[in-house]
Amino acid sequence: MLYELWHARLPGVDVERATGPVDVVHGTAVAFPRAAAPVVMTIHDLAFLTDPSTVTRHGLRFFRRGTELARTRAGLVLCSSRATMDECVIAGFDESKLRLVPLGVRVDPASDDDVARAQAAYGIERPYVLFTGTVEPRKNLPRLLRAFARLDRTDVDLVLVGPSGWKESLHDDLGAIESRVRMTGFVGQRDRDALVAGARAFCYPSLKEGFGLPVLEAMAQGTPVVTSRGTSTEEVAGDAALLIDPKDEGSIAQAIESILDDHALADRLSNAGRARAATFTWERTAEAVVAAYREAAA
Predict the structure, then answer these.
(1) Which residues face 40 on adjacent strands?
(2) Distance from CA of residue 245 to its chain's centroid?
(3) Are 237 and 209 in contact (CB under 8 A)?
């Protein structure tokens, strides 16, 4: 409700009323805070502009209003990726107010015991390819299921880790591979990290992301990654993953099979992923955010 009041721009509903005087206010999501101090906004993605069907009608109104306020009133706008910066420019943001602030990762490598415990807890008994994330349309899971079916092999399963979102039912896409697909629902971070570490490959063929933190988390665990070309996840992965056309089921299937069958390739991607993930630190993210605060306050 407070978010809605901020967007309504009603007098007396502002940050300073609760906090007292501040130098800078940081809006960390779409809700644009009402404040007398300079406002720094973070915009992770503008997927709702590309495909309005990915949000509810109420959500679409809310996101559009918050984005317009950020465009016209924010002192600076922080973007998690260059892909999001480009989207902001297309949406009419002043490019001089945009700052690139990639996210970071801090993951403790899962031990063999951690992996075995998590696999046992979720009934995973065979080698598997893994996806983590909310089950929603932009994650592109129907194509992943059809790509997995193309592999036509019985020595590996597909594990989907994450809660159900909305407007996405995968039942019709399971077909003949239903017995080889496990959907765990929500999994806590410790078990999720262990399941990622134990996977033969991590496949994240999302159509649109603001950054793609699951890709970074998988690389940090040394799990070979398959992800989408032409999106922010390509920025994250660099040359440490196999990049696919997320709308081409054959491309997805071929990349997964390459990792499963080519142990030298899997080892190379594992090592390259760990090295690349190590460059994405929360300390670097914090430094960029503090620099933006100082700039806005000045």
Answers:
(1) 26, 76
(2) 17
(3) no
